Amino acid sequence: MSFLDYAPAPESTALLNLRPEYGLFIDGEFTDGHGESFATISPATEKPIARVASADASDIDRAVAAARKAYEKRWSTLSGRDRGKYLFRIARLVQERARELAVAESLDNGKPIKESRDVDVPLVAAWFFYYAGWADKLDHAGLGANPRALGVAGQVIPWNFPLLMLAWKIAPALAAGNTVVLKPAETTPLTALLFAEIVQQAGLPAGVVNIVTGAGETGRALVNHTDVNKVAFTGSTAVGREIARAVAGTGKRLTLELGGKAANIVFDDAPIDQAIEGIVNGIFFNQGHVCCAGSRLLVQESIHDEVVDRLKARLSTLRVGDPLDKNTDVGAINSAEQLERIRTLSEIGEAEGAERWSPACEFPENGFWFAPTIFTNVATSHRIAREEIFGPVLSVLTFRTPAEAIAKANNTPYGLSAGIWSEKGSRILAVADKLRAGVVWANTFNRFDPASPFGGYKESGFGREGGRHGLAAYLEGGVR
Ligand code: NAP
Ligand code: MG
Q: Is pLDDT at 367 greater than 80 in this prediction?
């Protein structure tokens, strides 16, 4: 250890009061599931954290029935103001239990504690505060007077931002007057189960929020349940397609938030130091397990070498390791399966002729780890430039003119997000206008705010979450 190394600064897990086993949360209570229970593990150690129930079709039936009853008998009879009070209460409880939620999230997901503590959990609270404020103002959502709720929402979320995706789904649904059944991802069920405790603490009427854990089969049973009025899904494009097919013709409303392969475009007049930080944040934040990650760096040819050199120097200072250490920048890959996917695509990148580089990293003996990686000499046709890797892997491409940057940025089946780095405001606006992406960041990346709509074009899905648009997805008369 040199004198510049950081001493370990582990966050304590003492305040975590986890149960050894969790049931399904249905009708306000934890109950057994009929599927085979499973262990959720820490991806940094591969050690089991808790056992979690698995919901089969009969459990989904119970959960949807509880949500239906709560909708008819209770939630739809409350005023918006009263619904808002419950949501404000949930938001405050999230703040009160923030540290505990952050530790649980980092333990179960592998993300660095400084991210779960400073990004995920504060945004979760912000989402509930924001939509709490909307609950009594639905007349102003732009959907006419007294817009009606849809009924029961079936919601399925991925493992990369477990609690934040829950908040993106549950907060607008409840504010708009719906009740919900939510399935968290198999590898990250823990914070959703702690959220179920918060729902109890907040005194929410039984059945308004139901949490059903399990694997893909559980999600499928929920999506296909005939008494669900609305399906909201965040996850891969492949599963999104299957869901779109299953829901077609049923009259259920659907929103899909799927994958991405965002271009992060750096012009030669960009503030380079800021851009380097933005590129790093764009692809190495949350181990690159980010649907809107800036995974394709498009850099103007004249500054390519300088940017790549500085990027390599910066990557060499990133600390990869224990997610619960407060100094960690890059944590563990969420699962062995995801690690395998990242490895395979990276090997394909090398085989296709791109040049691979990573800083030297020492990894713990157990757990799932992947060094931050840069590919240069990448061609638009390479699979690492086209497919979502969903890991800490950046593909660097070049351009000469703004028109070429725009053409390359849009040359993707996805369209979730993009970034532009330039000192010149008029150029930023002109380029942003031509990018087919739901979110375009300028001189920043991966910024989220509950008031700002988020969602995709093309294979990144349809519908928007966040802002007034996010409410429309849960109200009659709203966009599909
Ligand atoms: P995934 O395999 O599609 O899984 C997402 C969720 O769907 C999980 O809860 C999963 O359960 C469940 N599921 C699997 N098969 C299903 C089926 N046939 N019917 C219903 N539900 C099913 O995606 P992932 O690998 O967990 O997540 C990574 C992907 O999500 C990436 O492509 C990423 O871009 C995308 N993503 C998009 C956004 C966005 O906002 N656009 C945000 C985050 C992630 P299991 O956990 O048991 O598999
Ligand atoms: Mg886990």
A: yes
